[in-house]
Design goal:
By secondary structure, the protein is an all-alpha fold. It has 6 helices and no strands. The radius of gyration is 17 Å and the shape is elongated.
């Protein structure tokens, strides 16, 4: 049973950790404004998309928990974790040469997190292969527990 719970935790939690690591890694690069298109609002759009995916992974992970408290407060916890990570990421960027920390970026990060939280259930219904894939993994976990 412990082995099954550990695998289940890895299945839902590892994408969150890997994605957070990817955000940290990308934020570690010095100024790369030459590679990014410079039309107005593009940077904000990138932040929204980046943190939408992060928020989606966080709420997916939290809703997979068997603890009632976590399930009940998953939307609030998702926003809290996501926005705090965004703040931490901006702080991290303040130490990277050629990068700067801005509240505007945190604002767009927050929009992405909130949008993911609000649309999570609807996107799960629209993208049915995710449910089918996770159901097959859950069956595997249950079979291992027997």
């Amino acid at each position: 049973m412990i082995k099954t719970d550990f695998r289940r935790s890895l299945f839902y939690g590892m994408p969150v950790i890997l994605y957070a690591g990817m955000i940290f890694f990308i934020s570690s690069f010095s100024d790369f404004s030459e590679e990014i298109p410079s039309f107005s609002g593009f940077d904000g759009l990138l932040h929204i998309i980046e943190y939408y995916l992060f928020g989606w992974l966080i709420i997916r992970w939290l809703l997979s928990k068997k603890k009632t408290f976590v399930n009940l407060y998953a939307p609030f916890l998702t926003i809290l974790i996501g926005v705090l990570y965004g703040v931490g990421d901006e702080w991290h960027q303040s130490f990277v040469p050629g990068r700067e920390a801005t509240l505007t970026d945190v604002f767009f990060d927050g929009i992405g997190i909130v949008a993911a939280t609000v649309t999570y259930r609807a996107t799960r219904k629209r993208i049915s292969f995710i449910d089918k894939f996770e159901e097959s993994i859950e069956r595997t976990f249950k079979n291992e527990a027997k």
